Give the backbone structure.
Amino acid sequence: MSPVDGGRFAQSRRAVAVAITHSGYAIDLNNCFIREQEHSRELEKALAVNYSFGTLSRTTPAPMRSKPKLISTTSTRDRILAQAAKHFAQRGFNATSLREITRDADANPASVHYYFSSKAELYLEVIAGFRELLSKQRNDALLAINPKLRGTRRIRAVIHAYIAPHVRLCADPAAANYVRIVARATSETSYPVEIQIPSTINTLRDEFMRALKEALPSASEERIRKAFTFTVDLMLLAPVDTVYESLAGKTAWPDDPETLIEYLVEFCTAGIVATCS
């Protein structure tokens, strides 16, 4: 070590001792002995202070005060959509707060308006993908019905084509919130005009009612409409039926969607035949 380095080393050592002594702790400098031949940077390694013993010692540095916050790799928009789906499923449209959604999504409150102009637009974005999927599956199933079927067998096929795609979503964890959202929609007291059932879905429902009318030519359009409406409501509520849960003491969510589909189809078909024949 050169005379210059030795002088700096001694000066640094004295400064450390003075600083720690002024902190109110008794210092045993023998515990921080550093070989004169080592480079001055070794001093930093000797400055881990064991306050519990009041000495300057070579100890493991204190752990970090808090765990670093993990940075999500999911985009802000996706996090908002995921949390919105949960909130709409739990509370419905009217009772859901955008502030709570952005809080749980760990997003700036202004970001929801950056990606979605309103709560209504956010709601529609949450359910849009499943709506489109169901509309396609129902339309395909309706077109695939054997034209030779007549009477009750045709009614059953029409009802199955409408109910089955929705109930099968219960087997998809990613669709669970959607199933609950649309079930809640049946009990909402009011909806903004912009999120009411779109004309495309009502047009498809008209096609199903027309198919029922063909199978029940003597039934009035009003009876067909009522019967179909009851069918849709039962389909939406069956997977989350709280009345069943209170009576049975277990969840209504189906372990086997196909079993629930068969039950609903038989029940609704029998009701339609009884009221519309």
In short: The beta strands are 49-50, 55-56. The two ends are 108 Å apart (CA to CA). The first strand starts at residue 49 and ends at 50.
